[in-house]
């Protein structure tokens, strides 16, 4: 389902590090907030990846964890990414509209369980939508959620997570503060591309 609400957090100046994800509790996790794309040097732009490649790179990093169960989960998910990505056929009309959206101030966070079949199916499909409409790793983060949903990337979560995958769409202002445009929880109401379009276009 889609949930719309807004929230702002304080940015630690000069570090591009944001405390927490939405500040709903006193605990926080660390998340990267990217600078505006126009501020990047040419060499930095060349390092930007497609969202699928960012997901696979993140899963490869997780595959090196010392915990054997977490490593096995990450490796299993990594092995499913290409098939799920290639088999998904998003609607051309929604993709065309998303292509026209200004993405320079949008950040997409995906919270998934490497152990979760819904994450295995949905996250690669969502990455394909992001790639087709021009989002890149500059706009995209994948965070792993523990089986008990109490940890994000190995740290105490900063807000309640009931179901995964959880997609959060933010708009960044000129000062780097983020406003939550909305969420897609577990699975899209209509489709990944249609639900994303409603969030980024309907909330401007």
Tell me the overall shape: globular
> Which structural category do the helix and sheet elements fall into?
alpha+beta
Instruction: Give helix and strand order, one letter per element, not per position.
Output: EEEEHHHHEHEEEEEH
- The appropriate CATH architecture is 3-Layer(aba) Sandwich
What is CATH's topology name? Glutaredoxin
Main sheet makeup: 5 strands, mixed
CATH class: Alpha Beta
Strand order of the largest sheet: 1-10-9-5-6
Work out the number of β strands.
10
Weakly predicted, low-confidence segments: 4-43
The radius of gyration is 16 Å
- How far apart are the first and last residues' alpha carbons, in Å? 20 Å
**Percent of sequence in beta strands:** 15-25%
Summarize the structure.
With 204 residues, the chain is α+β, with helices and mostly antiparallel strands.
